[in-house]
Amino acid sequence: MNDFAFSWTTMLLAIAVVLVIGVAVAWGVIVLERRNRREQRSERIQQAIGEAFAAEPLLGHASILPVAGFPAGAAPTLELTGYVPSVEARARAVRIAEAELGRLRPGMQVIDRLDVLPSLADRRKRPA
């Protein structure tokens, strides 16, 4: 004798469980894909800004790290951190970043966290 009895309730419950699992997996894939696209966009922007800095002779002795961020529910930002040799270099770095962002991602805000750190050679040139 067969101990398993077919019922529509059991069948509908099984279908519902399969559908819920499928929806959860699809949602997870969508969330991961969005995160991946944001990271790729950040990397492209950071690379373009870094190349623009490298092409600027005034920033030859600077150490600048551009970090692009696309937080959910907030405006995208580009944070500039590191050291520049002069106030002029700092202003130039911010202008370069703003110009590149205007081309790549209009509306993105630049956050300047650069520190001015004169080089040892510059300090030696100045009278005490």
Q: What's the CATH H-level homologous superfamily?
A: Cation efflux protein, cytoplasmic domain
User: Total number of helical segments?
Assistant: 3
Total number of strands: 3
- Strand percent estimate: 15-25%
CATH-scheme architecture: 2-Layer Sandwich
- Largest β sheet strand count, sense and barrel closure: 3 strands, mixed
- The rough form would be described as rod-shaped
Within the largest sheet, what's the order of strands?
1-2-3
Number of domains: 1
Average pLDDT number: 88
Label the structural class.
Answer: alpha+beta
Radius of gyration: 27 Å
Low-pLDDT residue intervals, each spanning 5 or more residues:
none
Query: Helix and strand string, N-terminal first?
Result: HEEHEH
Assembly category: single chain
Q: CATH class, anyone?
A: Alpha Beta
Fold-level CATH name: Alpha-Beta Plaits
Helical fraction: 55-70%
Q: Compute the separation of the termini in Å.
A: 103 Å
